[in-house]
C-alpha cells in the first residue's frame, strides 16, 4: 500500500512536508522521538499581509497543456558529481556544491536546446529555504511557506557556455538574495517580504522570461 500527501503552498513548503512525513512515519512505527512542528511561521502568513498578493499570484498562474509534459530521469552518481565539481572550480566559486554543478549542467543543456530560437537573457530559478537565513534564524521544524526564490541570470549560451561561469551565476543569485531578507531590522518584516518578491517572479513567468525552474530536495531527510 502506498500513501501520498498533497498540500497547498499557501500554508506549507517542502521543509514543512518533510517534518510532517517524518513525524508520521516515526509515530506509525511506534516511536516517540520525532520533531515537534512549530506553527508560528504559519501564523505569520495566514492571512497574507495583503489580500492583493494572493489574488495576483492566483490570477497569473500559467496554464499548461498536460500533453506537453515529459518526465525523464537523469542519474548523477557520486563519481560523476565529483568530476563535475572539479570541472566547475573557479576563483569565484572555489568549492561548488553538488546542487550548483548539477543545476548548471541542466541549465547549460536547456540553453543549448533553445539556441536556435532568438536568444535573450536566460534565467534559472531556484527555491531557497529561508529558515536558517533569517536573523535570528527560525526553528528548523517550523511550519509555513518560508521559501524565497534565487534568480541566476545569463546573457545566453555564447556568453555562458562553460560550467564554472554558470555555477558562478547560480552562486551570485543566492548571494544577492540573502541580504534582501537578512538586512531587515526585524524578522517579521523579512517574512512579510517573501510574498511580494514572489509576485515579481510570477510576472516574469507570465512574460515567459524564465527559461528553467529547478528544485533540489538534497538535504531533506525523508529516508532517515
Key attributes of the depicted protein:
224 residues; mainly alpha; Chloramphenicol Acetyltransferase; 3 strands; 43% helix
Assembly state: single chain
Radius of gyration: 19 Å
Shape: globular
The proportion of strand residues reads: 5-15%
Q: Got a strand count?
A: 3
Q: How do the strands line up in the largest sheet?
A: 2-1-3
Mean pLDDT across the residues is 75
The number of distinct helices, counting runs of at least 4 residues, comes to: 7
Secondary-structure element pattern, one letter each: HHHHHEEHHE
Count of domain modules: 1
Helix content: 40-55%
CATH class: Alpha Beta
- Structural class, please? mainly alpha
Distance between the termini: 20 Å
Corresponding CATH architecture: 2-Layer Sandwich
Biggest beta-sheet profile: 3 strands, mixed
What do we call the CATH topology? Chloramphenicol Acetyltransferase
Low-confidence stretches: 51-57
Family: Belongs to the plant acyltransferase family.
Organism: Nicotiana attenuata (Coyote tobacco)
InterPro entries: CAT-like_dom_sf (IPR023213)
Protein name: Benzyl alcohol o-benzoyltransferase
